[in-house]
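Holo model, NAP. Inputs:
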Amino acid sequence: MNFRKLGSSDIEVSEISLGSWLTYSGGVEAERARACVDAAFEVGINFIDTANVYGRGASETLLGEALAGRERSSYVLATKVYFPMSDSDRGLSAAQIHKQIDASLKRLRTDHVDLYQCHRYDAETPLEETMAALTEVVQAGKARHIGFSEWPAEKIDESLAIPDTVRWVSSQPQYSMLWRAPEAEVIPLCEREGISQIVWSPLGQGVLTGKYRPGEQPPADSRAASKSMSGFIDRLIQPQVLEAVQRLVPVAEEAGLTMVQLALAWVLRQPNVASAIVGASRPEQVHANASASGIVLSQDTLDAIDEALGDVVVR
Ligand SMILES: NC(=O)c1ccc[n+]([C@@H]2O[C@H](COP(=O)([O-])OP(=O)(O)OC[C@H]3O[C@@H](n4cnc5c(N)ncnc54)[C@H](OP(=O)(O)O)[C@@H]3O)[C@@H](O)[C@H]2O)c1
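Output:
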């Protein structure tokens, strides 16, 4: 496993990290989820991403249990705040940030997270209030660093101009061969400011593995066939997208790679990406995903990917 520096911090994160959204918030049974966490350590993954809202605390609770016996300095732990935790608890006000970090730390059974991320921008709270509260959280030792996820570029810019507050080290956007929107503004801005990308859904929720075939039912053990986990995959399992993904199969073969390696090496070709945050429903997937670290795609392969995907790519 290779490691990359997380923005301007002194943290080194594994190129492949373990996510916990639909999977460890209840979609995957607890024993299997714990086996995936163990597999992550076996393959050298040191970076685990969660959020308070995943299962309204369930994902953090599961990770707290799964990580309890491990040396705290052996892994880098990231969580997030913003989405509703109850009818009245939501957003990035100072009161919420202070309340939610304490609740997250309790569920995660630790006294600090390495990265505390604002899950979205909160238009209802003054930005100065959010940045001051995040600074207090860092000063109190409850988080080592801060990050944002899917903030508009102008709000990132505005936040960076606020004096006497901690600076971001990470940005968490959706990024994959199919979803390249961050390339327009967010990545160039972050490159200038010493902020790394840690990217979500780099496998397009599993679609880029090629396992969903156009015109066929999804495999019975897949996310698209799962009652609890299929709520967000519709846009990706459209026939045109699935047909384009099937055109990647010979591209991967020609390069001597699996589809998983092709997809993850593609996001890691971008130097501003520190880690690909990958979800996994089985330990074997963690092993397969980790094998993408260190693979460099040739220009011919990159060109063939663009040709195969054509206009299904979102830019
Ligand atoms: N910041 C945000 O707003 C945000 C949003 C979404 C996600 N995230 C983070 O990013 C992480 C990853 O996102 P994601 O889980 O949506 O997408 P993903 O990593 O692109 O896809 C993960 C899913 O693909 C399938 N898969 C994984 N490895 C595979 C393999 N080797 N072979 C075949 N299938 C494989 C598994 O589903 P099945 O086996 O069930 O098919 C797995 O749950 C999340 O867990 C979360 O931590 C953040």
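The two ends are 30 Å apart (CA to CA). The longest helix spans residues 94-108.
Archived with the compound record.
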